[in-house]
Amino acid sequence: MTMRYLNLNPFLAQAVFNGEKTEIRLPVAGKYESRNTWKVGDKIWIREAFRIVCPPDKICDKGSNKLMDCQDCKGKKIQYKAVDSRLADDWRLSSCMPRWAGRMMIKIEDVRIENLQKITEDEAIAEGIVAGFVELPTPLHSTLRYIAPGVVMTNGEGERDNYAPAHCSARAAFEVLWDNGPGKKAGLDWDSNPLVWVLGFKRIS
């Protein structure tokens, strides 16, 4: 059986680990078109940004292809950007993660196909959208806003903006998450309202 996997940014990976992300939407067409047999009971392992620490404190620099079957690396300390993001920036991409370095497996509990924009506020939260109160000028004081975790925006000059924009609804934040993640990779943006797989899952390891 082919091992299935999903690549997640560090924020969403940690949300899965904490039980805060329990749904994911994937395009029916495009990149995931050949995976049209998702079913309840399927197990998927999560790939995320990581690095391998060899004794005493050396960061492994082996090429990604060698890592897949490297007996010397197996059993070494694995650090995950989701947990240790304050460390140096020499992280490996999630797409480079071998199965033995992963820390999470999820199991699908619900599968359906529907149009993307059918997502509700509660379902957007289940996708990992973060809610929090934002300070505003008086007399409003503070109000609830929603953030798409891990999405890096740029300003009008194409420069990186380290402050994630806050949205008035979880659905609006999910729109940004989609257009900068699965939708962007598949060429299917929010406005096109594509058919998507909706996978409800729980973490089992």
Topology:
Blueprint: E1 4-7, H1 10-17, E2 23-27, E3 43-47, E4 50-54, E5 58-59, H2 64-67, E6 77-80, E7 105-115, H3 121-126, E8 130-135, E9 142-147, E10 153-154, E11 160-161, H4 170-179, H5 182-186, E12 195-203
Parallel strand pairs: 1-3
Antiparallel strand pairs: 2-12, 3-7, 4-5, 4-6, 7-12, 8-9, 10-11
Write structural notes for this entry.
The protein is of the alpha+beta class and about 200 residues long. The chain has a single domain (about 5-50, about 100-205), classed as Archaeosine Trna-guanine Transglycosylase, Chain: A, domain 4 (Roll), CATH 2.30.130.30. The protein has helices spanning about 10-15, 65, 120-125, 170-180, 180-185; strands at about 5, 25, 45, 50-55, 60, 75-80, 105-115, 130-135, 140-145, 155, 160, 195-205. A hairpin with a 5-residue loop joins β10 and β11.
Average pLDDT confidence is: 81
Morphology call: globular
Classified in CATH, the superfamily is Hypothetical protein
Strand count, sense and closure of the main sheet?
A: 5 strands, mixed
Number of discrete helical segments: 5
Terminus-to-terminus distance: 19 Å
Strand arrangement within the widest β-sheet reads 1-3-7-12-2
Would you report the number of β strands? 12
Tally of distinct domains: 1
- The succession of helices and strands, N to C, reads EHEEEEHEEHEEEEHHE
Radius of gyration: 18 Å
Share of helix, binned: 10-25%
Low-confidence stretches: 155-161
